Amino acid sequence: xxKTLLVANRGEIARRVFRxxxxxxxxxxxxxxxxxxxxxxxxxxxxxxxxxxxxPAETYLxxxxxxxxxxxxxxxxxxxxxxxxxxxxxxxxxxxxAGLTWVGPDPxxxxxxxxxxxxxKLMEAAGVPVLGNLTPETATEADLPLLVKASAGGGxxxxxxxxxxxxxxxxxxxxxxxxxxAFGDGTVFVEPYVxxxxxxxxxxxxxRGGEVVVFGERDCSVQRRHQKVIEEAPxxxxxxxxxxxxxEAARRAASAIDYVGAGTVEFLYxxxxxxxxxxEMNTRLQVEHPVTEEIFGVxxxxxxxxxxxxxxxxxxxxxxxxxxxxxxxxxxxxxxxxDPAAGFAPQTGLLTAFDIPGVRAQFELAGGLRLxxxxxxxxxIGTFYDAMIAKVVVHAATREQAARQLAGALERARIHxxxxxxxxxxxxxxxxxxxxxxxxxxxxxxxxVVPGLLRPLDQDRVELxxxxxxxxxxxxxxxxxxxxxxxxxxxxxxVSQPQTTDFAVSTxxxxxxxxxxxxxxxxxHAERDDVxxxxxxxxxxxxxxxxxxxxxxxxxxGEAVDVDSSLGHVxxxxxxxxxxxxxxxxxxxxxAPMPGSVVAVHAGVGDEVAxxxxxxxxxxxxxxxTIAAPHAGTVTxxxxxxxxxxxxxxxxxxxxxxxxxxxxxxxx
Length: 668
Description:
Elements: E1 4-7, H1 11-24, E2 27-32, H2 40-44, E3 47-50, H3 56-59, H4 63-73, E4 77-79, H5 89-97, E5 101-102, H6 107-114, H7 116-125, E6 146-150, E7 160-162, H8 168-183, E8 188-192, E9 198-206, E10 212-224, E11 227-233, H9 240-256, E12 261-270, E13 275-282, H10 289-296, H11 300-308, E14 329-336, E15 338-339, E16 345-346, E17 349-350, E18 353-355, E19 359-362, E20 369-373, E21 380-381, E22 388-396, H12 399-412, E23 414-416, H13 422-430, H14 432-435, H15 449-453, H16 459-480, E24 499-505, E25 512-518, E26 524-525, E27 531-536, E28 540-545, E29 548-557, E30 560-565, E31 568-574, E32 589-591, E33 596-601, E34 608-609, E35 614-620, E36 623-628, E37 633-638, E38 645-646, E39 651-656, H17 660-667
Parallel strand pairs: 1-2, 1-4, 2-3, 4-5, 19-20
Antiparallel strand pairs: 6-7, 6-8, 9-10, 9-12, 10-11, 11-14, 12-13, 14-22, 15-16, 17-21, 18-23, 20-22, 24-25, 24-31, 25-26, 27-28, 28-29, 29-30, 30-31, 32-39, 33-35, 33-38, 34-37, 35-36, 37-39
Helix pairs in contact: 5-6, 12-13
């Protein structure tokens, strides 16, 4: 039996495996990069080992260092988590060769499914429906649109949609670069792209001896940039015969490679034709496994460990069911540090508050609201890894109830410090498209969809939040003052004019709001007679608007001020009265949308560029982002070079719209 388990992964993934280990009495070992030295998962492990000498993004890909760490910590088993080395057959073989227990499928099974090109051939031979493979030489206009995919890995990295044949070579090159960065393997392939398909995957657990148990299916169709946003189980709206056929195809796929352990067989389902096609088999646990755990009442990590120890999915002496029976409906959302209103740009910074009311459990069966997260309030969201903050899961009797409960919990959550996709998730869960089960993998690709789902930050909501913030900050300053603690807030014996407090609204647009108000024993808004101050304190302000009273909770960290109420969250930044001239940014400046590394520079000082012309490529969180000229003009500054690390908001280049000739004429 396993005594000490090392998890060759990080963050939420490591914490999830640790949780089951604690239940089973297994000691835990974490490995970490320098960037993760103080991370939550490192602090929670029984022992931790630093993986030295490599860039943070590459550290967890060094299998030799992981095995050395296991020996040093006295671990007798390694769990790869999901991601990084979890589908690396060479690593699995090295773990076994080192005399350690490998918590995963046999290396041969990983290798046979590791190449999406070869696995398709294998599945076709096993009678599983597949999409055909194409090459740049064989693809024609009639095959469009096409999908370029990384042969190793997943998560949308190394994946590109091609709608013009002339773009194919360039998109293959970009996909290969992303795949090499994310997985250490730049191999990509091309297949036909189904425009309005659904992503449906089947959870299997194989026992030694050939038995494969199916734990239902999940729908993961709500995606952005080919990365999943919402997952649920069971998949809604599937005809019973199609559901049974999917399960049988998954069982056949796993049996074809004598699969042992937990795995997921992914399919593309076309509702129009009621047909499905094999995409790939992930020879590991999936990020979205909690929804399956909730509806079946099982701990999939515990099953992985049992199989690795030579046990079975079901108790000895009984025949494993070929198919378990689900109960109720579970939905999971991925809460990301990103700004949907700015093209899903990743966000970085300090998570100053993170609280979701009603959470019943973390990393284990909840029968209600569950939270799986790798971070907590006070942690930094950096640039080296995925921008996911947490997975929020709910299990309810029906799909409609699950969607309503999850949307309500997200809406009431306190998430401060950086922009997230929380409002988008709420909008998705309440949309008719989702509630009616009409979503597809391309749903969020429509440029009009995301803005329509985001709750508008209307002026009234901002004004009330800013007024509450101004009062709370004034109360806080009064309470902290030795001389003013007993004097009413902002009191004046001769009132000549109202107080003025200025804020910037922390959105992509960054608009400003100015609050004019009077202090004293009964503070009031200077410009709105319909707003009455019911109570005001350093942390809470109650306002009545038209007779309706709402409480505004106010939190402040430095100049950042967060206001939460039943109207929604508003993030503000208090503005100083005087601006430092050094902080001003020249017109035409291209700013880094997020921290990252410069991987390409396509222009130089003095170059004439057209509007939309690519100037630089920035890589952040293993995704590449092209920085284009905002308008036609001349490049007057390039402040970065390939390999430079830049902070979010840093000036990368300046494009001047005024030509030199025009300047000379005006000067003359």
